[in-house]
Write a structure and sequence with these properties.
There is one protein chain. By secondary structure, this protein is of the alpha+beta class. It has one domain: Pantoate--beta-alanine Ligase, Chain: A,domain 2 (2-Layer Sandwich), CATH 3.30.1300. Helices cover 53% and strands 24% of the residues. Strands 1-2-3 form a 3-stranded antiparallel beta sheet, covered by helices on one side. Helix 1 runs antiparallel to helix 2. It is rod-shaped and about 90 Å long. The termini are far apart. The model has no long low-confidence stretch (mean pLDDT 90).
Length: 119
């Protein structure tokens, strides 16, 4: 008769270790998704701020400053900004301990309609 005492303990320990590794992996993937989402949100805000400045007739430099401020307010750094004519196109980046993410967005100004007037 062989001694099989402790086999269940080893299998249980391996199962717990595997569950821990899977939990850590899922948490890291989740953190990466959240970081990318924040970069995309910051890029959207920066592009809209730049387009808003252009729609108000401000200069390209003012539009870039507005885009930079919006990106900074959302925890990102403005990397590239092309704000001219009726288009604002931006790229932002977020660099954290958990990772690095880029966001890209474009906003066009529609000057074909009259602005709505307040009653």
């Amino acid at each position: 008769m062989t001694c099989e005492r402790g086999n269940v303990t080893i299998i249980a320990a391996a199962g717990i270790a595997l569950a821990f590794v899977l939990c850590v992996g899922v948490a890291r993937v989740g953190a990466a998704v959240v970081l990318q989402s924040r970069a995309d949100t910051a890029a959207d805000a920066a592009a809209l701020a730049g387009a808003d400045a252009l729609a108000l007739g401000r200069s390209s430099g003012d539009a870039i400053d507005a885009a930079r401020a919006a990106a900074s307010d959302n925890g990102a750094a403005l990397v590239v900004c092309s704000c001219a004519g009726d288009t604002a196109e931006v790229t932002v980046e977020i660099d954290r301990e958990i990772g690095h993410a880029h966001g890209h967005a474009r906003a066009d100004v529609d000057l074909s309609r009259e602005p709505a007037r307040a009653p």
